Structure prediction request, 240 residues.
Amino acid sequence: MKLALILGTVAALADIFGGLVLVRRDWDKRYLRYFVALGAGFMMAAAFLEMLPESFKLSLAWAPVLVLGGYCAIHLLEHTITPHFHFGEETHHDEFLARHTGNSVLLGLGVHALFDGVAIGSGFALSSWLGWVIFLAIFLHKIPEGFTVASVMVASGRSRKNAFYAAVILAAATLAGVLVIALLPGWVRFGLPVSAGVAIYVAATDLVPEVNREPGIRMALVFFSGVLMFFLLRLLAPAI
Ligand SMILES: [Zn+2]
Ligand SMILES: [Zn+2]
Prediction:
């Protein structure tokens, strides 16, 4: 209950922050990078130490294939069909002018967000501990995710209003993913391994490159803090 309250408060604050980042031009965006780094570290730990072992428990034969499938599907959607995509603010305006690029980024991130929701739903379908851990792993990259899609929309010539709607579409896709597993809990045997592959992809190839772009070791330390945070949570969890 205490954990739920803490997470609920953090989620509410992050929602407010995320909304303000989109609306306010003068808002300091530097702190988003800390969410990216912390989220990447925590998500890596949660995917490798919780999502993968639980997936293998569901099906030792199929889980590895489904994990790889989830990983490859997001690579296809975010970086193959979409010619230019990276997490964080879109600043390469010269190579990024086509309007249709905005749509393909929205499609790629939309499917990714759907699996963010499937991951949370799958976690809670198995245990509340797994659900909370996955929720936190997903939550940490959600503010930068909404910011990313909005910034891509603006860079491809959309109005700020439409850019905001793009972030709303991602939110709806996430909710749809949670609903799929809530309505069809049996799908967890596919949902968990596929979303584990998606989570590994998002952490390792979407978020970590943004961490590595930063000079110095500070961002790397934030990444390791994310990993450490996972272990701390695991230590504290039985007491809550
Ligand atoms: Zn760019
Ligand atoms: Zn996401």
In short: The pocket of zinc ion (ligand 1) is lined by residues 84, 86, 90, 92, 96 (CB under 6 Å). The radius of gyration is 17 Å. The first helix runs from residue 2 to 23. Confidence is low (pLDDT under 50) at residues 1-5.
